[in-house]
Amino acid sequence: MGNILVGTCSWTDPALIGSGWYPSSAGDAEGRLRYYAGRFGLVEVDSTYYGLPSTRNSRLWAERTPDGFVFDVKAFSLLTGHSTRVGSLPAQLRPAGAHANARVRADALGPAAVEEVWRRFADALEPLRAAGRLGAVLMQFPPSLRPGPGAEAFLERCLGRASALGWRTAVEFRDPRWYAPERAAGTADLAKRHGAALVAVDTARGLPASVPPVAAVTAPHLSVVRFHGRSPHWGTGSKEDSYRHRYTGEELAEWVPRIRTLAERTDRVHVLFNNCCGDAAVRAAEAMSDLLE
């Protein structure tokens, strides 16, 4: 497939582990990662959205994967404007008296605390970067981030910080208004200014929360496509309901020309499946690999 890498958004999802896709010989964390990396060249780490990663884990991930294997890493929720569970923050940064299950946003913590979260997140990724295993840092912004001057100012700060750290970044919006006909060109230009890949998304069509399948090239080095499944509960149901979908061959085939076009215009294309329902994501990734080959 040349410069196209295909993978899934997690190799540790409990539903995947329980599906039987991993053989009994891959019975621990090391075995599962080695088995996965023997079949795909790319994976997205999504656990880093829910909690800060550790330097130790990054080092182990690099040691347990072959040369050329790539990790895309999803940015910690606090850094991209999401509400964040207090218990996922370092103890010394938690608001006094706040319950661990309470949620907080960056503006409630203060600049010094947010700066420390950025520092810890960057330090934890350093072993992957140093080993040449860090692909893109996915900056996925919440549905509440709607187009406008305030949102653009936030994006400038966020992407500027990521660029200063030397990361390749991918940007994904969850509010479909970013991709409206009158807005789409401006959204692409915003990503281009920071050399970020504007993520092309596949979701259910025709729902209020549906993001259109816009596949724009905004960075010469990277394009990213993320398949979330086509559940009718996208944007409204539980996580399991929103992502429960098994792609058909026809649904995958319609993306093949778009992916090949992206591959002609960028150095590398990352194709990731996030339909986390049993082994649905790995089976779709296998099928997409076959189609592209």
Description of the molecule:
The strands form 2 sheets. The protein has a 9-stranded parallel β-sheet with strand order 8-7-6-3-2-1-11-10-9. It contains 11 helices and 11 strands. It is 36% helix and 15% strand. It is globular, with a radius of gyration of 18 Å. It is an alpha/beta fold and 293 residues long. β7, α7 and β8 (197-198) form a beta-alpha-beta unit. It has helices at residues 14-17, 29-37, 47-50, 55-63, 111-130, 149-164, 184-193, 239-243, 249-253, 256-265, 280-292, and strands at residues 4-8, 42-45, 70-74, 84-85, 103-104, 134-140, 169-172, 197-198, 200-202, 223-227, 269-273. α4 (55-63) runs parallel beside α5 (111-130). It has a single domain, classed as TIM Barrel (Alpha-Beta Barrel). The model has no long low-confidence stretch (mean pLDDT 94). Pfam families: DUF72.
User: Could you tell me how far the N terminus lies from the C terminus, measured between alpha carbons in angstroms?
Assistant: 6 Å
The CATH superfamily label reads: Protein of unknown function UPF0759
Helix content: 25-40%
What is the subunit arrangement here?
Answer: single chain
Helix/strand structural class: alpha/beta
Number of helical elements:
11
Mean pLDDT: 94
Q: How many strand elements?
A: 11
The CATH architecture term is Alpha-Beta Barrel
Low-confidence stretches: none
Order of helices and strands: EHHEHHEEEHEHEHEEEHHHEH
Rg over alpha carbons: 18 Å
Report the principal-axis shape: globular
> What's the number of structural domains?
1
InterPro entries: DUF72, UPF0759_sf
Organism: Streptomyces chitinivorans
Pfam families: DUF72
Protein name: DUF72 domain-containing protein
